[in-house]
Amino acid sequence: MAECYFDMETTGTNFDKDEIITIQWQELDRFTGEPTGELNILKSWESSEKEILGNFIPKLTGYRWYFVFIGKNLLFDFNMLNQRMKHHNLGEFNLRNLDERVTLDIKPVLVLMKGAFKDYDKVIPKTNPLENKDIPRLFRERKFPEIIQYIEDEAKDFINAFQTLKREMPSLTKHL
Q1: What is the predicted pLDDT for the residue at 121?
Q2: Which of 24, 107, 138, 148 is the most buried (most CB within 10 A)?
Q3: Between 84 and 120, where is the model more confident?
Q4: Which residues of 86-110 are buried (b: 16+ CB within 10 A; e: fewer)?
Q5: What is the reported pTM?
Q6: Sorting pLDDT into bands at 50, 70 and 90, what band is 65?
Q7: Residue 80 is part of a domain; what is its CATH number?
Q8: Residue 154: which pLDDT band, with cuts at 50, 70 and 90?
Q9: Number of domains observed in the structure of the chain
């Protein structure tokens, strides 16, 4: 089983109009959450959205234990992937198949920790002052190194938080 941190950057949240500009993932140790490989980043500005989707589809549709998605707000990512795949005639990722895949979305845990849905993602400490909403502007301005830095920092921040959850959550079972 390969747990993989997974995220994407997009030009917005409209599944039909906006595009995926990066798809990133990093394999993690399934016991500690430590990265076991490099952060992989597929960049649309080096090819196209269609090409990065085509390169990523095998991970999305392959054997379910080979790539276990670990992320935040995965439902958005899966819906965006699905719509953009259909847009480029690359097939369709049947979202009903998600019940057959192992995925771990930490969004509900963060909402519980925050005590509210609003700003739930602020539970994870950030090292980069940029926010997700800044990425479309940086993309339009062709400031790709800043996007890459944001992605690298966001991955490290997420993985640190995930490692803490992996370490601390098992102790909660004694209370159940």
Answers
A1: 72
A2: 24
A3: 84
A4: eeeeeeebeeeeeeeeebbbbbebb
A5: 0.90
A6: low
A7: 3.30.420.10
A8: very high
A9: 1
